[in-house]
Amino acid sequence: MSNALLEVVNLKVYFYTLSGVVRAVDDVSLSVLPGEWIGIVGESGSGKSTLAYAIAKIVPPPGRIVGGKVKFMNRDLMELNEEAMRGIRGRHIGFVFQDPLTSLDPLRTVGDQLAEVIQVHLGVGREEAIREAGELLELVNIPRDRLNYYPHQLSGGQRQRIVIAISIALRPELLIADEPTTALDVIVQDQIMDLLKEVQMKGASIMLITHDVALAAEMANRIAIMYAGEIVEYGDTRSIINAPLHPYTAGLVNSVPDLWSAKTIKSIPGFPPDLRNPSPGCRFHPRCRQALSICINERPPMTIVEHDRCIACWLYLKR
To answer: pTM of the prediction?
Structure first.
C-alpha cells in the first residue's frame, strides 16, 4: 500500500541451529496503515514474535534476516546500519515485550530508566527529563512518587505500564506490543488494553502480537493469522471473525469459549510442524480435516479473495 506506515514484503527470518535451519518467518508480507490497530494472531511458535523482532532488526542469534523488505515511513529498514536503526527504535518504533521484568534494569529506579530514554533521544536536561517521566507515570495511571521505586517493588501490572510508558515516551508512530497482557489478571489486562487504546487515539499505529484471537477481535481493525512461519489469512477483523475462510482460522475462532453460548469448544488436532523440515505444500495440511491432495506438495499462494481479504488455501484458489 502506497500510504502504509509500515510495509513488510516477502520477509524471511531463519535460525541456523546445530540441528538444522529453522524457518521461523518464511515469506511474510503485510502492511500497517497510519493510526491502525493490527493483530498478529497464532499459536505459540508460529513466528509472531520473530516477525516483530525482525521489523525492528533485533532478531537474536542464531537468527538472521535472510530476505525481504521492511519499509517504514518510506525507508527500507533492511538497508540501514545499526547506528541508523538506533535512531528508529524507541524514537519511531516503540516496543512492549512479553515480560516487563526482563525489560527493566533491576538495579535502577523506574524514574532513572524513564529519564534516560528522554535525555538520550530528546537531548533535554536531567531535571526536565525527570519532570516528563513523572507526567508519563501519571499518564499510565501510576502515582508520580513511584519514580523512586525499583522494578521489584511494583506489581506485574504496574511494571507493564512502566514498560508502556517507556515505549511511548518519544511518541513513536508505531508501537509493537508483544503479548502485553500475558500472566496478568483480567482486570489488569483490561487496563493495559485501555491504555493502548489511548495511545492509538493519539495517532500511533499498534501492532498487537497475541495468541488470544478474542482479544485481537475486540481491539484490532485488521487481523493477520500466522501459522508455522507464514500468514495464512489476512484482512478486516469482522469479516475474518464472523466468517473465517482458512481452516486454521476457523479452528482458532471455534476454540474461543463463550459464556453465553451453548457451542462446543473444539480444539485443533495435532501439533505445528517442525520448521527445520516443513512440508513443501501447505504447512497446515496434516492437521486439516479439509485437506486436498494438492495440499501435500504444493504451497498455496497468498491470494485476494475479497476486498482486502487475503488467504493462502487451495480450497479457495483456482487449480
So the answer is: 0.91
